[in-house]
Amino acid sequence: MKRALISIASVALLSSATLVAQTMQINGAGATFPYPIYSKWFAEYNKLHPNVQINYQSIGSGGGIQQVTSQTVFFGATDGPMTDEQLKAAPGPLMHFPTVLGAVVPVYNIPGFSGELKFTGRLLADIYLGKVKKWNDPAIAQLNAGAKLPATDITVVHRSEGSGTTYIWVDYLSKVAPDFKQRVGVSTSVNWPLGVGGKGNEGVSGLVSQTPGAIGYVELIYALQNKISFGTVQNAAGDFVRASLESVTAAAAGAAANMPADFRVSITNAPGAKAYPISSFTWILLYQDPKDKAQGKTMVDFMKWALSDGQKYCAALGYAPLPPSVVKLGMTALGKIKL
Amino acid sequence: MLKSRILHRAQTMDGFRLGTGVFAFFLVLIVATLGWELWRQSLLSLQKFGFGFWVTETWDPVAGRFGALPFIWGTLYSSILALLLATPVAIGIAVFISELCPARLKQPLIFLTELLAAIPSIVYGLWGIFVLVPAVRALQVATPSALRQLPLFSGPPLGVGMLSAGVILAIMIVPFTSSVAREVLKSVPAAQREAAYALGATRLEAIRAALFYARTGIVGAVMLGFGRALGETMAVTMVIGNSPQVSWSLFAPQYTMAAVLANEFTEAANPLYLNALIEIGLFLFIITLAVNSLSRLLIWRMGRIGKEVVTLPAPAEAAA
Predict the structure, then answer these.
(1) Cβ proximity of A109 and A214 under 8 Å
(2) Is residue B20 part of a domain?
């Protein structure tokens, strides 16, 4: 008995020792929005390369930027590009790599109305500035001829916590409405002129569904998965577009023509007749000159896989895949990492 | 030989005392480093905004202008509201259990009130969203418009807001206040009640005498509940509406210190923003520390007074 125990223990010890010797652990942290696709990618990549284990903490974009800057993790992930000031604070040049796309959609709860509403960026900005106060406002009626809208007060709902979703939403509204940019501005959390805050997509959609006359914004994935109906938004070409994986990818393709070399680009209000205007990339952050070359090599290999084979997992999880033009640019940029 | 054994024992005792003393000291050290670290990490904001931080109503992370007034206001308002709602109920429960309750009901009741304290706050929050908030909204819709003109009831009927936060906090602090108040009542010497009865007091008057005797400790129990309400985060942030404004209205969505920390900390990437948040944490730390110390002091004083009185064995106990 005793001998059996000892042999089991020694086998366990030996195997764990060899495991430690071979497995490469890479740690990352950041945005919550891409967490489902990232964890799917890391699991699939682990099946292909059993010796590589990538751990990801979805602590939020701000936390991801902080941790990668202080080098407590090997890579970061963010929903909003880093500012020049943040880049300067990092100990070495950090590179942005777009991985997938997300979009934000307006959701509403209007008593006695269940159709699809049309919005313009101007109208959404006016609602979020408190200038349009009732659902039967001429500005809404004009866009939605035929819809019978009640004289209910509009209750504005926004995210209470700092969030990449808020970043995309206010980035779009700031682009189309200069007064919104001046009054509110662009950040992951902002000083809202009015409204109530819900925590997370579920908090916002919960408040909207419970409050008659409410309007809010949630991630496209969340709306699709929970079968919440949402409105269409007019894009830069003047068309009213319903958010879908195709229309979000189209927005990225439209913006790819003028892609800056560092990928720090906002693709809200992108050109193209089919482009959904409230779309955004989400990025992985890597040092151009990584301290640990072995980890760097593995991470670059993973990124190449994620940008090519990995993209096929996007649709099933509700993410819009990158257009081929952006994948090509990403592959080229990965070659610049010093290994 | 005997001498050396006694000496050895004394030495062991000294070692034991030292060892446990180190642990106790460790606790003090943790609190001190907490305070120090909070102060150190909020220096940027302390230097930039100074005292203005506490009286400014703007919270604008984009422009880098930070003022904590709405959060302080919201924290104090919601906690005081909760206190007003919870105190009569909690003291009622304590009096019933310790003075009036049939013996058979006593344990189940104690268990039930303590069960309330064991429910995680996120569960309270979910219950708040799905049950309390719609109920509060219905109440708001039913409020006569004449009343709605008053600043206390102004604003659209949202459901989420100060009233929902106050109610949910009240439910959460009832078990704390009532358990401590019960213990305090238990520590009232039987001689006090006996004396009241001896003077011809009715049962109600005897209870009043006991309550009066226990008043310091009961105030301490209430303050303990207050301290708990100040720091409650999850349930409050789910129902208060998270809107940084200073308003008297019970219907208005507002914000608390703990809620803003929970909401904004993860995405605060800018140093000044982070420092401003930590300064709020520092303030919350100081307030809760002060409130809790004060309440403990009151309860402790009560316990000491209780011991000074020469207690006679209660006849009821003697009979049993």
Answers:
(1) yes
(2) no
Inspect the interface and report whether the beta carbons of B238 and A63 lie closer than 8 Å: no
What is the share, in percent, of chain A residues with pLDDT greater than 70? 94
Q: Which of B73, B37, B52, B112 is nearest to B275 (CA)?
A: B37
| Residue A266 pLDDT > 70 | yes
Percent of chain B topping pLDDT 70:
93
Mean pLDDT within A213-234: 90
- pLDDT at A5 exceeding the cut of 70: no
Q: Is residue B168 part of a domain?
A: yes
Q: How many residues are present in chain B?
A: 320
The b-or-e profile of A99-124 (16+ CB within 10 A means b, else e) is bbbbbbbbbbbbeeeeeebbbbbbbb
- Number of folded domains that form chain B: 1
Report the residue of chain A nearest B161, measured CA to CA: A196
Q: Which of A18-22, A122-126, A189-193, A219-223 has maximum average pLDDT? A: A122-126
pLDDT in tens, A77-111: 998 888 888 899 899 999 999 999 999 999 999 99
Residue A11 scores a pLDDT above 60: no
Q: Which residues pair with A26 in a beta bridge?
A: A54
The position carrying tokens 């313009």 is A120
Classify burial at B4, counting beta carbons within 10 Å of its beta carbon; exposed 0-12, middle 13-18, buried 19 or more.
Answer: exposed
CA closest to B245 among chain A residues: A194
Residue B144 makes CB contacts below 8 A (sequence gap 6+) with none
Average pLDDT over chain B reads 87
* pTM of this structure: 0.81
Query: Could you tell me if B206 and B196 are in contact, meaning their C-beta atoms sit under 8 angstroms apart?
Result: yes
Domain that holds residue B304: 34-54+66-308
Give the CATH number of the domain where residue B279 resides. 1.10.3720.10
d(CA A54, CA A34): 15
Q: Report d(CA A162, CA A121) in Å as an integer.
A: 22
**Is A63 in Cβ contact with B267 (below 8 Å)?**
yes
To test the contact with chain A by mutation, choose from B251, B267, B275, B278 the residue with the greatest count of A C-beta atoms within 10 A, namely B267
Bridge partners of A100, per DSSP, are A282
The half-sphere exposure of B34 on its side-chain side, counting CA atoms within 13 A, is: 13
Q: Decide the pairing of beta strands A214-219 and A94-109.
A: antiparallel
Question: Which own/partner pairs from A136-145 qualify as long-range (CB within 8 Å, at least 24 positions apart)?
Answer: A143/A117, A143/A118, A143/A119, A144/A117, A144/A118
Cβ–Cβ gap B264/A163 under 8 Å: no
User: Which tokens in the block code for residue A18?
Assistant: 């060899």
Domain assignment of residue B316, yes or no = no
* pLDDT score at A6: 54
Instruction: Tell me how close the Cα of B123 comes to any Cα of chain A, in angstroms.
Output: 14
Name the residue among A66, A161, A198 with its Cβ closest to that of B269: A66
Which of A199, A204, A209, A285 best probes binding to B when mutated, by most B CB atoms within 10 angstroms?
A: A199
Contact flag A196-B242 (C-beta cutoff 8 Å): yes
Q: Tell me if B315 is assigned to some domain.
A: no
CB contact under 8 A, A196 and B243: yes
Whether A220 and A233 have beta carbons less than 8 Å apart is answered as no
H helices of chain B, in order, are 2-41, 43-49, 69-95, 103-118, 121-127, 133-142, 145-148, 162-186, 190-198, 203-213, 215-231, 234-239, 257-264, 271-308, 315-319
